[in-house]
Amino acid sequence: MQAEKRAYLELHIAVFLFGFTAILGDLIQLSALVMVWWRVLITSFSLLFLIRAGKALRKMPRPLLYRFMGIGVIVALHWVAFYGAIKLSNASITLICMATTSFFTSLLEPFIMKQRIRWYEMLLGLVIIPGMALIVNSTEATMNTGILVGLLSAFLAAFFATLNKKYIGQTDELTTTFVELGSAWLFLCLVLPAYIWQSATPVQILPLSGMDWFYLVVLSLLCTTLAYVLALRALRHLTAFASNLTVNLEPVYGIALAWLLLNENEELAPGFYAGVGIILLAVFSYPLIRRWRRKRGLPT
Fold first, then answer.
1. Which UniProt keywords apply (predicted)?
2. 7, 68, 200, 233: most buried by Cβ count inside 10 Å?
């Protein structure tokens, strides 16, 4: 129980930092793909000061290395979709889309982890759907593409988190983070030339201002390196569903920051807040249901 409490604390710190990434993504004047390219480059470089990369990679079995590299590609696609959704809608709407991660996890985790389906996880995942419907109906039609991209980002987040849960016990968190984010950077290096070539307008690669560089460093070191390692540590003691449901608090932190820093509350209708309320109800119900079942000796 003590390890689980510590895992929840570390996860909540990570979630707060994750919530700040949406604000930074809105502030940084780069396209989604270029921003993620810089993010994983700076993060991977920072990890070289924390691990002996060559030794760590040699110790890791080849099949496991390739699995984590594949997960890194999924992480890259998730972040590109996440920041793309912010550019197509706004930070608040994208963060709420990410709350559907728990629904996707309730479908993916039993299949990937070869576990029985937990009826209450499925129920809570389904509760989130009407909340999302209210949010979609309360936003302008011009933002619908951003909502779809945000949902894709949520699905990819559920996918890579569940895969990480399956394999995380076989190596340490820092090495896993380095392999996944390093692979994400290599993948984006392959994609970036094609993106530049097909773009109808010139693609800005270098940040133009000192503040953009500052935001990128904060995004990479605090909101990625630190947050990612804390989230992976927490996965050792929590289910993927519990982890992703807690990550649903990211909208709470992120939207509060968006209201304070970006004044996004001026763009949101009452239906948006009703949808947020339904989603938060599902988030906070999960630990209560688990505690109730544990007290009665039921499997959790």
1. Membrane, Transmembrane, Transmembrane helix
2. 68
Asked if 164 and 11 count as a contact pair (C-beta separation under 8 A), the reply is no
For residues 109 and 118, what is the distance between their CA atoms, to the nearest angstrom? 10
Please report, for the chain, how many H helices and E strands are present, in that order.
14, 0
- How many angstroms separate the CA atoms of 195 and 190, rounded? 9
pTM of the model: 0.81
Q: Are 135 and 272 spatial neighbours (Cβ–Cβ below 8 Å)?
A: yes
Measured distance CA(61)–CA(28) in Å, rounded: 38
Residue 192 to residue 203: CA distance in whole angstroms = 10
CA atoms within 13 A on the CB side of 45: 8
pLDDT at 262 over 70: no
- Identify the CA nearest to 248 among candidates 201, 286, 215: 286
Give the rounded distance of the alpha carbon of 89 from its chain centre: 17
Q: Which residue has the tokens 């590299």?
A: 69
Check whether 4 has a pLDDT greater than 80: no
| CA–CA gap between residue 122 and residue 103 (Å, rounded) | 7
Name the DSSP class of 207: -
> Residue 294 is which amino acid?
R
Q: Which three-class secondary structure state does DSSP give residue 202?
A: coil
Asked if 165 contacts 240 with a C-beta cutoff of 8 angstroms, the reply is: yes
